[in-house]
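Progress narrative, work stream C.
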Amino acid sequence: MSPFHIPSLRWRLVAIMCVAYVVVAIVSGAVSYSAQRSGLRQQLTARARSDAAILAAGAAGPVSVGGLKNRQVLIDFVSAVQSTERLTSIIIRGPDGCVLTPPRMKGCKPFLTIQARTSILPNGNAMAVAPIIPTGAATLAGYVTVELSGKTVSDSLHQDLMVDALVAFIGLLIFLLLSLVIAGYILGPVMSLARAASAIRHGELTARVPTQGSTELSDLAGAFNEMAASLERRIEQLSLLADTGAILPSTLQAHEDARPLLQSFARTLGACAAGMPDRDDLWWDDGKSTCRDAARALGGVGTPTLAQRGEAVLLALPVPQGVFVLAREGRAFSRDEQQVAANFAFQLGIAAENVRLFEAQQEALNVKDQFLSIVSHELRTPLTAMKGYAQMLRRRLADDPDGQRFAASIDAQVTRLSRLVDDLLDVTRFARSQFELTRRPMDLRPALEEAVNRFSIIAPNHTFRLEVTDGDLHGEWDRDRLEQVLNNLIGNAVKYSPNGGEVLVRAGRTDHEITIAVHDQGVGIPPEEQSQVFDRFYRSAGTQNVKGMGLGLYVTRRVIEAHGGTVGVRSEPGAGSEFYFTLPVVGAGVAAS
């Protein structure tokens, strides 16, 4: 960065003008000083020459060729002239070159032919030499040397220089004030432009620059105002698109009136009609027949279309469920406005299509839930009868080992089928928000022991172990539903563990909750699938060879969440899995939804 960096453009201009003034003042002062010095020196040498000629003429009388007739007269004459003319030095020499006056000065110079001459000495004094030739004589009687001090010249130059410097300084102050005025006059519109740009940068989109006259700066201000207005309109349109994009889906899904949104969008673009002409719930116009009729007549196009119908300018854009039409009078749509309209039409069409798909999906889900509910209810009756007959066969065939084994297998498969039917029925209850809990005070320890003992009989090839830490396992829960959860978790542990594997059930209590965990020695679950195992109908890729519908863990999660607890899994591939759930000891549960 330059050491003379000036952030303000105004002060930059003032500084440049002042520097230019100073440079001009210095140059002109130097030229003036040189001219004055030369003129004063010419005046000094001219005076010295004149004084020397006068002295030579005055000394011609007292001096004669070959000697001095009256030296005192010459001395008096020289003294009078020197005091009158204020000469620095006067020396009169005779024809032999010896000093005649002043009397105290001695010495002689070789005789030379003397001609009148002047010169400037190194000390700045002017010296003039004039020959003394008496009247009527043809020979040289001597010569006069006059030295005139140059101090008057230097004093005059110094005085003039001081005056010029003072005048230049006063001129600089005046020029500085004028520069500020000129800079303000020239840069005022630029500064206004900078302030308006800063205001727009800080969000004041209505900031504008005043325009005056017809100068280039006025043209620049006008262009800036047009740009700012265009930017304001663009941001307003983008804000409207963002707002409507967030509101449209929920508005259409809730079957609320979307025409206020269409009206707001149309007003933003100065349009008299907007929407889908074939859908009254997605159409708005200002009531003028010309605009309405022209817009509705443009439906059915397959590509984006611009058209003119009388005074109405129409823009038609195909959307997933029809055609979006925008109409206004007198003024064509700019490229930016066409893009904004296309974005809005896309949002509207996608939202309408999503609502249609959502409603179709909901209808399909309702049909499916109804089917599952009917099938589940219809299957429960024959399954109950089959289970009763299977248990009766087991009692009657107590002495027949093969028959006993076949009857036990039938009983187990009916029990499994009944559990699947119950899970399907629970899924339909969850979907319809009809799932309820029957809470009663209970102790979890007997329920855990009963579940472990039951599976020890059902799966004799596995080892079951129950670990309960010291602590009270009493609470107020739905016993049947918790038994269903335990059956699902322990049953999964048996299915996914190898024959001879161990199933460990742990229970413990903290101040506010009870934690139950079921650990198996199965194949484990990859980390990327652990967040999905509790989803409806989801089955891990490594368990596809195990029979099941993927509902047990989903029902488990919903039952535990209905109690106000949480459910989770800890697993590593090849190291088994541990499914756990928590139950709050204090506080009511949350209804399932």
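Work stream C, second folded protein:
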Amino acid sequence: MTEKTTAEKIREFSERKNRIGAMGGEKMVRKQQEQGKLTARERLDLLFDQGTFQEIQLFVKHRSTLFGLAEKEINADGVITGFGRVNGRVVFVAAQDFTSAGGSLGEMHAQKIWKAMDMAIEARKPFIALNDSGGARIQEGITALQGYAGIFYRNSIASGYIPQISAIMGPTAGGAVYSPALTDWVFMVKNNSYMYITGPDVVKAVIAEEVSHEELGGAMAHAAKSGVCHFVTENDEECIGRVKTILSYLPDSCHSPQPIAPCTDSADRECPELDTVIPDKASRAYDMKKIIAAVADNHEMFEPHEYWAKNLVVAFIRIMGRPVGVIANNPRFGAGVLDVNASDKAARFIRFCDAFNIPLLTFTDLPGYMPGTQQEWSGIIRHGAKLLHAYSEATVTKISVVVRKAYGGGYIAMCAKGLGADYVMAWPSAEIAVMGAEGACNVIYRREISGADDPAAKRAELAASYEAQFNNPYFAASLGIVDEIILPRETRKRVAAVLDAFQDKSETRLPKKHNNIPL
């Protein structure tokens, strides 16, 4: 047997590499593209800065011999893993290749993902999963399930340590859905991606309910109904672009400095439009997003959960180039009340920001919690407690601005001074009290009203007196519960000043294993 020359060995290496790089072959690649989807390698080309992607474990193969797998070649075992730079910053990735055995997850496929995740944790860098898979590789049996378990374990270990992002760019079903649910941010693509525990066929067989893939687990279903999806995109290109955007707001790890963007805005910029944003009539709605955008650098905000729990807004903004997490009631929807979903939405966002040292800015305008049997039986006490816990647990800088109504438990839940707010501001339009004037008078002055010659006139008189005393920020300010009353137009510069003053804030809590948040 003639020994191969070095040139022949190099040529063989190039041939092997090119064959694996062809993924599932020309026919399968064409089928993927005809569905309006990019291939895994095209997605990686879009994600990473040109020429920076370093693939790892390219030559890994499955080792199963059952059910015909011994003769089946699956290039890269259906997943591409590695690292590279996204806008100059190192990021680790696992991109499933649907053209190769449907991107199915088997033993070695999973171990490639484990390796990428382990490297991300050790390097203290973000991890991104681009999901496009038919699910567990059934022919490999229990080793596929073991593979998923190892991914879930690493998702949990990495939680709060490095940012984790999932982009659902194709099918993700069964056990595969739990890894995205364990990550920080979930992106989905309309019409081409879906997530569910059991598919339409099983649903029909078990409970005789007919439903399509899209209705059951499509992007809008999870964005508007379940809250599993944070961002909905039109296509793969937009999805990758928005993943890059959220990365720009996040540090590499909980130990890394915040990414500071170049700022062309001014810390002293006034927002005169805010002087007229609050309607004169207390029952009228307005769009809280206008306030958030006005305060942000160059009026830019990046909003997760845009379609879910619309009565509350969470968003990333920058103030003088530094990331800030915003939580705000939105009176345009349900008067901005807190309910089960809004409480979960806010609590999750607060805990993420706190984990990665992103300051919190809260805008308050709500009449309280949503009343009724539906909310009580859905656990509003338990879910509302998550929000109280999240704010209390957070040690980052916490700034609260009361813009209008702040009544009862809702006032407390939106980061009141007693929950650890570092600085509380209020607009002159703020109404801070246990409840509205009408309800308060019905309790406090029940006898006076019932015994009056004209109960309606007496109620109106007493309500006016109550409003004069409590439906303004001055009583709270006189007790030091509100630190400063500001003109609405001054909001940006006052918030910027407080953030600058508190940028070195450090707070140590009681030593313990972990909190027990009321899940």
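The longest helix spans residues 107-123. No further action is required on this item.
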